[in-house]
Amino acid sequence: MKRYNMRFYNMILALGIFLITAGFIMFILSPGGTDSLVMTVWPIVAIVFGAVFLYFTLSFTHNSFHLFLGIFCSLSGIFFGLVTGGVIPKTLNEWWPASVVFASLALLAAGFYKAQKLRIAYTFPAVTLLLFGIVFLLFSFRIIPGSFKSFVLTFIPFFIISSGIFMVVLFLLQQKYNQFYVEEESEEIDVDEEEFFDKGL
Fold it and tell me: For residues 121 and 181, is the Cβ–Cβ distance under 8 A?
């Protein structure tokens, strides 16, 4: 059975990411969207940046932060591109909190990618961002009546107390399981990346 080298699989990955990116860009550029050039272009730029980060992360760097940027840019670009393109109803003014949700998902995936398991150091801020994003969405779509400012002023003591409790619990968990830390990313490139640059590709 013939075995293929890493370059072949990297080409397959690049082609797959390119096709996905091109497909969503076609959705964004489809008729019926916004006439504003800026509102059309920035999601496309975000998708392209996200695709580049994802490709180099999965093929060469294997860096969690790069993966975070790739997922966040890709999800944000795709979603908000579909919103500005008219595929998803409502406007950016209502959907903007979705970016906070995407940041939480990207952070969770980045932490899992490096450790191959959920770590408190990534899970806690990811869940916190997710909850904030959901609350922002509820106010943005007027599901919760009243203004977000008055809500925060009313419940800020509860938030402060809850944050303090979370920090104490996290400290105790770290003492017991030694999980609340972020592993230092290696600055060294892997063998495939080294060969890639040595050959001048």
Answer: yes
